[in-house]
Write a structure and sequence with these properties.
Blueprint (H helix, E strand, L loop, with lengths): L2 E5 L3 E2 L5 E8 L6 E8 L6 E7 L5 E3 L7 E6 L4 E6 L8 E9 L9 E2 L3 E5 L2
Parallel strand pairs: 2-11
Antiparallel strand pairs: 1-3, 3-8, 4-5, 4-9, 5-6, 7-8, 9-10, 9-11
Length: 121
């Protein structure tokens, strides 16, 4: 069974840092692009970042540029989202997703269940 599982979501103060993890089981991520998305209830899902272990392509949303960074660990078959300088507007459920190929043309076929990040005083 192919599965993605996110973890690391928490309640954070503004300005804090948090690292989310996305672990893949049942398949290897070597040929995939892995994206991070976030969604607030009642609002449209927003793309946050992408990194491809297939061709090295990347994407980062302007709203998180300079604060968030995505990276991979091929041994652990895991993708991370390092979140620094957290703002209240970063509050959302964060999802990871995987699709074959490049971040440029990827179609995401596998999705995790989401992990809640809340940024508040």
């Amino acid at each position: 069974q192919k599965e993605l599982v996110e973890s690391g979501g928490d309640l954070m103060q503004p300005g804090g840092s948090l690292r989310l993890s996305c672990n893949a089981s049942g398949f290897n991520l070597d040929y995939y692009a892995i994206g991070w998305f976030r969604q607030v209830p009642g609002k449209e899902r927003e793309g946050v970042s992408c990194v491809s272990r297939s061709d090295g392509s990347t994407y980062i949303a302007e709203s998180v540029l300079g604060r968030f960074t995505s990276s991979t660990d091929d041994i652990k078959n895991t993708v991370y989202l390092q979140m620094n300088g957290l703002k209240p507007e970063d509050t959302a459920v964060y999802f990871c997703a995987a699709g074959l190929g490049s971040c440029v043309v990827v179609e995401y076929d596998y999705w995790g269940q989401g992990t809640q990040v809340t940024v508040s005083s």
